[in-house]
Amino acid sequence: MTNTLIELQRISKRYDMPNSANVSILEDIHLSIAEGEFVSILGPSGSGKSTLLRIMAGLIPPSHGKVLYNGQEIQGTNPGVGMVFQSFALFPWLTVLENVKLGLENKPLTEAVKMRKALSIIDMVGLDGFEGAYPKELSGGMRQRVGIGRALVMEPDILLMDEPFSALDVLTAENLKRDLLELWTEKKIPTKSIIMVTHSIEEAVYMSDRAIVLSRDPARVIADIFIPMAHWRDKQEGQFTGLVDKIYSILTKREIKQNEHVEEQKKKIEKVQEVPAGALTGFIELIDDLGKKVDLYKLADQLSLNLEDFLPIVEAAQMLGFAHIQHGDIELTEIGSHFADASVLNRKDIFKRQVLQHVPMIEKIIWILHSKSNNKMEREFFLEIFEKHFGLEEAGHQLDILIDWGRYAELLAYDEKAKNLFIEHEASAAAE
Ligand SMILES: Nc1ncnc2c1ncn2[C@@H]1O[C@H](COP(=O)(O)OP(=O)(O)OP(=O)(O)O)[C@@H](O)[C@H]1O
Predict the structure, then answer these.
(1) Residue 18's pLDDT is what?
(2) Please, how many CA atoms are within 13 Å of residue 364, restricted to the half-sphere of its CB?
(3) For ligand 1, what atom is nearest to the CA of residue 47?
(4) What is the pLDDT of residue 264?
(5) Residue 257 confidence (pLDDT)
(6) For ligand 1, atom 14, which residue shows the shortest CA distance?
(7) For the segment 51-83, what is each residue's pLDDT rounded down to a tens digit?
């Protein structure tokens, strides 16, 4: 029987927001990871992947639930994990050797043993000869090798990696992925399990044995997919592309929450994707040019976009009823096709209809502007309302995108200087 190494029991995480509102980031996450598994965690941007990883590491506490390591609930930091960060997190004033040795700082080992272990790991991660170099003298890929070395030198049971390759250029990342996989598959390191947050479905299917897919607002586990392929995997092979397509479909499916009446959902303030109307228009035109239906995975590849950049556009197109996803393909709806073929003015009309139908927040903004005798309202007013739901930073982003969509649809206008939103006919009146 395989040993469960780490177990999450009913983990939830909430953050308190101003005005005593709170946002739920993770909800009721149950996950069990066994010895020998390499698991990827995928999910939309901002869904809570990093938060989940940090909870596993014991760097932040969950609001509810437990993390068990080897059957014991962790208190404070998890003693079984080593962590690799996207940003490398190296100390610039320390050499490669000193940065790696830092991983052993709290271990009861003699200096000579620490030195031996650090030098051996440096060799293993391909940095032999660079022991005395400082981070600024290294390329991005080499810096991440130091980051990985610092985590591995602790000989952790579990290696947690938070988007370890996303700050690197494609070739460097591929190289490092292969080297790490080699250490793992050939058991050159004593690590018993690897858990990696990634934005790249392809990376997950290439490297891991299991992909956990999270939803957003709040994050729940919506899929747990086994990848039953031996290493080294061929990215062109049918089974590989089939799995990539399957995960794409899951990630791009807009979730209708169970037990929730459609009308109740409509009333809810639902986050919109931060995709300007111009980008969305271009995307719909592109799908139209490609025959109205295209494989998402291939499209992302052709556009050289990673999941983080690509998914919001796909989601926004779905949310507004311009496209739908099936079996890994994105296809324009009738409205989407109509939009692509329409004149500039007609496009604005269609966009207006779709936005009013699918984005309750815009409807509310317009209603408020109409209710005011001067049809005008300060940005600050809306910001305060949104802040209760999203927090200050996100509220600003949401409002910016709603203003962008509202302007494109000619539903409202915005005075950048005075920071006022107002109804379009006011714009012509003001200009007279
Ligand atoms: N201290 C905090 N207070 C309030 N909200 C927070 C805090 N830390 C994170 N969040 C929010 O929690 C959500 C999840 O963040 P997290 O970084 O875990 O997501 P992610 O899936 O890793 O994102 P990305 O894919 O963009 O890296 C975000 O909306 C973020 O704004």
Answers:
(1) 67
(2) 14
(3) 21
(4) 46
(5) 44
(6) 48
(7) 999 999 999 999 999 999 999 999 999 999 999
Q: Please say whether the beta carbons of 303 and 37 come within 8 A.
A: no
**CA-closest residue to ligand 1 atom 29:** 46
Q: Which residue has the tokens 């404070």?
A: 76
Q: Give me ligand 1 centre to Cα 48, in Å.
A: 5
Report the alpha-carbon distance of residue 26 to residue 47 in Å, rounded: 8
Task: Enumerate residues lining ligand 1, CB below 6 A.
Answer: 15, 25, 43, 45-51, 391
**What atom of ligand 1 comes closest to residue 163's alpha carbon?**
27
Q: Which residue's CA is the nearest one to ligand 1's atom 31?
A: 46
Residue 303 is classified by DSSP as T
**CATH number for the segment(s) 4-252:** 3.40.50.300
- Would you state the structure tokens that stand for residue 234, as one six-digit string? 């061929």
Query: How far apart are the CA of 13 and the centre of ligand 1, in A?
Result: 11
Beta carbons of 199 and 163 less than 8 angstroms apart: yes
Instruction: Give the domain ranges of the chain.
Output: 4-252, 273-339, 359-431
CA of 45 to the centre of ligand 1 (A): 9
Structure tokens at 134: 């400082």
Pocket test for ligand 1, best of 14, 19, 50, 56 (most atoms within 8 A of CB): 50
23 Cα: distance to centroid of ligand 1 (angstroms): 11
Which residues in the chain come in under a pLDDT of 50? Answer: 255-267, 426-432
Assembly ipTM: 0.96
Question: With 0-12 CB in 10 A as exposed, 13-18 as middle and 19+ as buried, what is 339?
Answer: buried
Q: How far apart are the first and last CA of the chain?
A: 79
| Residue bearing tokens 């999270």 | 214
Q: Which two tokens stand for residue 132?
A: 């005395």
Q: Which pLDDT does position 259 carry in this prediction? A: 42
Q: Take residue 177 and report the two structure tokens written for it.
A: 């992925």
In 165-277, DSSP assigns E strands to 193-197, 210-214, 221-226
For position 340, what pLDDT does the model report?
A: 94
Confirm if 323 and 336 have CB atoms less than 8 A apart. Answer: yes
CATH class of 273-339: mainly alpha
CA of 47 to the centre of ligand 1 (A): 7
Quote the distance between the C-alpha of residue 184 and its chain's center: 25
pLDDT value at position 431?
38
